[in-house]
Amino acid sequence: MPFRWTPELSALDITPEEWFRQRRRLMKGAAMAGAGAMLGLTPLAAMSGESSEDTQTPFEKATSYNNFYELGSNKENPAANASKLVISPWNVVIDGAVARPEKLSLEELLKSHPVEERVYRLRCVEGWSMVIPWLGFPLAELLKRFEPLGSAKYVAFETIHDPQRLPGQARNVLEWPYREGLRLDEAMHPLTLIATGMYGRPLPNQNGAPLRLLVPWKYGFKSIKSIVRITLAEQQPVTSWNLLAPEEYGFYANVNPQVPHPRWDQGSERRIGEFLRRTTLMFNGYEKQVAGLYTGMNLSKYY
Ligand SMILES: Nc1nc2c(c(=O)[nH]1)N[C@H]1C(S)=C(S)[C@@H](COP(=O)(O)O)O[C@H]1N2
Ligand SMILES: [Mo]
After folding, report:
1. How far apart are the first and last CA of the chain?
2. Predicted confidence (pLDDT) per residue in 46-87, tens digit
3. How far is the CA of 31 from the centre of ligand 2 (A)?
4. Count of CB atoms within 10 A of residue 300's CB?
5. Least CB-packed of 109, 160, 224, 247 within 10 Å?
6. What letters, b where the CB count within 10 A reaches 16 and e where it falls short, cover 10-37?
7. Residue with CA at minimum distance from ligand 1 atom 11
8. Is the pTM value of this prediction over 0.90?
């Protein structure tokens, strides 16, 4: 894969040695997955749903067609404005209903959480999708460190708020900062990832550097970018898109071809880089892994 090291892409202020170490852990992880298969354990690939049949979206496309409203409202804006997002220094606050609230530097976070590669489909509610090899670690591993209290039922996430620098935040397209949330069991699910890279590299700014959420069975807007705060909560958190248009963007936002959207077709989707539309799969193809989270729930009501 051709890769140009542009200023936007190299903005993540970690040393090459740190990335080298991350990559080495990744290779070890891959080797262990092979050993696990021999022992009859679930191979890592099983975590990726049917993605083995999927062709990966070319890097150039995945980094030039983005939704990142802080960097502009059109698909081309985030790549063009990428350098306006300053990601060094970067800290993440973990607070709320946890025994050990903390402000964590990005360096510390990267050192203590080795990444693995996960190929995930991500489907936007607008009707397009991509297949991307992410580098990340399960959100559950991060949350456990801070010891969520028994009263914690939800997790709330916030993106950086920096209207001086981020051109999109000068306009009230959304109520800033961008906010998202999950139920605690969704957050702890092994598919739910904190991504710090893609295609074997640090995350480009337009894709949510230096760290973002990935919840591959939900519409793309749940996968909040450039996170600065994670708060364990007792009540269902307020989320940006739900605030703006609750009839269009539910709190759950599970990919569901059976539940129509007022403006966009949810029965099919266009894979970026492809011509023909594909059928959209229940839970974006991750039904086997996640359907159990919603047993007995009316998914038309809790959309
Ligand atoms: N902070 C923030 N996160 C965000 C968004 C955004 O505008 N701001 N857009 C969301 C939407 S609608 C989608 S589809 C995905 C797109 O991710 P990608 O650009 O990496 O494909 O990011 C999500 N995360
Ligand atoms: Mo989206």
Report:
1. 38
2. 444 444 568 999 999 999 999 999 999 999 999 999 999 999
3. 34
4. 11
5. 247
6. ebbebeeeebeebbeebeeeeeebeeee
7. 221
8. no
